[in-house]
Design goal:
- The chain is mainly α and 132 residues long.
- The model has no long low-confidence stretch (mean pLDDT 82).
- It starts with a helix and ends with a helix.
């Protein structure tokens, strides 16, 4: 029975270790993959032109670089609240730049989509807080 338990523990530990290694700290894929995914989501909502897609992709890649620096600061002992503030500012700056690229109809849709996402985030945070 002890041998069976040890084997089960070893298999579980190996599986957990392998799963942890697959992420490689690259949450959500490479910066290019994340930018493409974000552009695709935005394109579904506001129907971007090819020129807009190119410019928005560049903005998301720029944001990804800023985000990486912010996360590095947090890992080096940065304050979690200050990191959250910096992330919020970076996201808002990117959204302002994206909005500047959109026509009036796209801006309305983009603003509504942002409100939907903010509401969904609040709901998830409330559920998470209630679950703790």
């Amino acid at each position: 029975m002890k041998k069976l338990m040890m084997i089960c523990m070893l298999v579980f530990a190996t599986a957990a270790f392998a799963q942890a290694q697959q992420g490689g700290g690259n949450r959500g894929g490479t910066p290019e993959e994340r930018a493409k995914r974000s552009v695709d989501q935005l394109n579904e909502k506001v129907k971007l032109t090819d020129d807009q897609k190119t410019k928005v992709t560049a903005l998301y890649l720029e944001q990804g670089a800023k985000t990486a620096k912010i996360f590095e600061a947090m890992q080096d002992g940065g304050n979690r609240d200050s990191v959250r503030v910096m992330m919020t500012k970076a996201n808002e700056a990117t959204n302002v730049k994206i909005s500047a690229l959109l026509n009036d109809e796209q801006k309305k849709t983009f603003t509504a989509w942002q409100a939907e996402r903010a509401e969904a985030m609040k709901k998830r945070m409330a559920e998470r807080a209630a679950g703790q």
